């Protein structure tokens, strides 16, 4: 195992192709970065620059006025702004944790335990990914209202716990784990629950760190899309609902809206950077000597 | 004896399954919470929608059973659906494979960078999926007057003399839609591939180089791709789902309905009937047809992916 520490990274690599490939990567990256650059620079534009035609990508006279205006708008709010912030964080965090844990718990048996019904359950999961959500909205509403979840956090949290994507993603990653490793755990007397939590989960760390990004992003930014359907009381609404209201304020509000767009992006991006840089190579065979 | 041999065999099989199930009860306990929720909020709505596709349902009156009428109407009477079908197929045939390969290539390139740089580059490439206002940039680029970036560039260099109405001209809208989708395409499967590459056992590369693998392309085909087969399958399903259910970018960028239905897709057709005309039965039939198409494409793709690295 000593040899692996030297990272056989430069194996089979030639400098020429390296340079060429990374030039390509750089070029594409510049183009892909446009929305980020645009959003950041827009948030600091004074009102006349926002309306310049044709619009400029970069800001010329940066100002914090959009942000101070935003604070002014919030101070008029009927429900304290902190309440909306709490709702958003609560839904995003609890929803993500619940989804990651429940989906991986269900993925482990599907990937590694042979039990009757395994194939059937898995194909139902994959099939459901192919069905468009536009027509299931009405049945979904009927179910949520039948269960009495209208106007509670659960109307958003419960469906988020059971999203399809997470189970599928986790199952695919768990499939790569060598069976011998799990056998070893069993021989040492670990229960299935322990194997799941202490052997499987640490190995598929890159998978659930990625899943956190997906789940958090969808709960954070699409919160309003689902929440306005099931949640009517003002105290339970999320930040992006309020931001939507601000955007409806017309031209005067264009500056604050630019600021809002930037603010809404900060949390997903922070989570993104933290999770992406903590995806450390976990070899599927670490701890296994053959 | 009534219920002789076949009956007994059936019973013994049931008994065997039951002991298997009892032996694996932990599996069911682990799965229960997720699957109860999943069935309630995903499986039941899908089943309900499949049933609704055989009814006439306008959300006000109770559904009325009409058999295959919705489907017959879809293929025989609805010309616009056929346009939507053609557009969607063309769109998916181009964006699906290209964005799938792009997702993998970029993930593969980024994977060799040190973690910090990798995180930043991943973010930049994923940016279009994370930023909410992406349509704005394309609207600027393809604005119909001479100030639009595309027009002003082409006019400055003398390729055209008059601005092109990019987003209104039926000759261009579908192409623009494809371009924007490709730009947006480094999404879910891209991140899954990046994580997947991290899970590939490093020692295999050493073993491979001893076994005579000479360059990075051989390494890719014989080691990396086969080791990533689970992620590749996942990515394919996600890409198929997103390539065939394109709607939002068409609605926001080109308009709804688009000029002469040039950018009309199956899902925008569905949105039309489901949320504007309130013909839920008909909308469900559209969804079912789309579902069948995606399923077929998925089966073929999974077959092809099984051959990777052989």
Distance between the termini of chain A: 10 Å
Instruction: Please estimate the helix content of chain A.
Output: 55-70%
Number of strands of chain B: 2
Proportion of residues in extended strands of chain A: under 5%
Number of strands of chain A: 0
Helix content of chain B: over 70%
**Residues in β-strands, percent of chain B:** under 5%
Largest sheet of chain B: 2 strands, antiparallel
Extract low-pLDDT stretches of chain A.
Answer: 1-8, 286-290
Cα end-to-end separation of chain B = 55 Å
Low-confidence stretches of chain B: none
CA radius of gyration of chain A is 24 Å
Oligomer: heterodimer
Which secondary-structure class do the elements of chain B indicate?
mainly alpha
Which chains share the greatest interface? A-B, 101 and 103 residues
| Basic shape of chain A | globular
Q: Categorize the overall geometry of chain B.
A: flat
Rg from alpha-carbon coordinates of chain B: 25 Å
Query: Element order, helices and strands of chain A?
Result: HHHHHHHHHHHHHHH
Membrane topology (chain A): Multi-pass membrane protein
Protein name (chain A): ABC transporter permease
Domain ABC transmembrane type-1 (chain A): 85-275
Organism (chain A): Paenibacillus azoreducens
């Amino acid at each position: 195992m000593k040899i692996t520490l030297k990272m056989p990274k430069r194996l089979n690599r030639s400098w020429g192709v390296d340079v060429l490939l990374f030039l390509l990567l750089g070029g594409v990256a510049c183009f892909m970065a446009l929305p980020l650059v645009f959003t950041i620079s827009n948030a600091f534009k004074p009102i006349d620059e926002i309306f310049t035609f044709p619009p400029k990508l970069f800001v010329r006279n940066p100002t914090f006025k959009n942000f101070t205006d935003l604070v002014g708008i919030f101070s008029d709010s009927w429900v304290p702004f902190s309440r909306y912030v709490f709702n958003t964080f609560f839904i995003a965090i609890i929803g993500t944790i619940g989804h990651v844990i429940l989906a991986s718990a269900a993925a482990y048996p599907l990937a590694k335990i042979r039990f009757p019904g395994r194939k059937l359950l898995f194909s139902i999961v994959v099939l459901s990914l192919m069905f468009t959500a536009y027509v299931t909205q009405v049945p979904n509403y009927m179910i949520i209202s039948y269960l009495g979840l209208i106007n509670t956090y659960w109307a958003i949290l419960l469906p988020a716990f059971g999203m399809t994507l997470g189970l599928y993603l986790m199952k695919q990653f768990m499939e790569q784990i060598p069976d011998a490793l799990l056998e070893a755990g069993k021989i040492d007397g670990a229960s299935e629950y322990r194997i799941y939590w202490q052997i499987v989960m640490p190995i598929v760390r890159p998978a659930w760190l990625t899943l956190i990004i997906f789940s958090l992003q969808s709960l954070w930014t699409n919160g309003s899309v689902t929440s306005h359907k099931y949640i009517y009381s003002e105290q339970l609404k999320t930040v992006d609902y309020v931001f939507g209201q601000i955007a409806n304020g017309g031209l005067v509000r264009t500056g604050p809206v630019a600021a809002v767009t930037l603010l809404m992006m900060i949390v997903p991006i922070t989570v993104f950077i933290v999770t992406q840089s903590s995806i450390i190579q976990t070899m599927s065979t670490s701890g296994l000597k053959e | 004896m009534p219920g002789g041999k076949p009956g007994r065999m059936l019973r013994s099989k049931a008994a065997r399954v039951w002991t298997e199930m009892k032996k694996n009860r932990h599996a069911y306990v682990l799965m229960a919470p997720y699957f109860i929720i999943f069935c309630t909020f995903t499986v039941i709505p899908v089943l309900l929608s499949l049933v609704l596709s055989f009814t006439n349902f306008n959300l006000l009156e109770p559904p009325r059973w009409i058999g295959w009428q919705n489907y017959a109407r879809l293929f025989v009477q609805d010309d616009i659906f056929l346009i939507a079908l053609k557009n969607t197929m063309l769109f998916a045939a181009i964006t699906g494979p290209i964005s799938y390969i792009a997702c993998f290539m970029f993930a593969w390139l980024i994977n060799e960078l040190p973690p910090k740089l990798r995180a930043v580059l991943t973010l930049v490439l994923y940016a279009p999926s994370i930023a909410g206002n992406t349509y704005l940039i394309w609207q600027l680029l393809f604005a119909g007057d001479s100030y639009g970036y595309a027009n002003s560039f082409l006019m400055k260099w003398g390729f055209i003399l008059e601005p092109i109405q990019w987003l209104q001209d039926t000759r261009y809208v579908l192409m623009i839609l494809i371009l924007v989708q490709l730009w947006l395409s480094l999404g879910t499967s891209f991140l899954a591939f990046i994580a997947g590459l991290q899970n590939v056992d490093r020692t295999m590369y050493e073993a491979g180089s001893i076994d005579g693998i000479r360059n990075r392309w051989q390494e890719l085909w014989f080691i990396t791709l086969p080791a990533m087969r689970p992620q590749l399958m996942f990515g394919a399903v996600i890409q198929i789902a997103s390539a065939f259910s394109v709607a939002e970018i068409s609605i926001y960028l080109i308009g709804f309905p688009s000029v002469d239905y040039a950018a009309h897709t199956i899902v925008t057709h569905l949105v039309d009937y489901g949320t504007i005309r309130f013909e839920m039965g008909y909308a469900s039939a559209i969804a079912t047809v789309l579902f069948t198409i995606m399923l077929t494409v998925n089966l073929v793709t999974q077959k092809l992916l099984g051959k990777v690295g052989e």
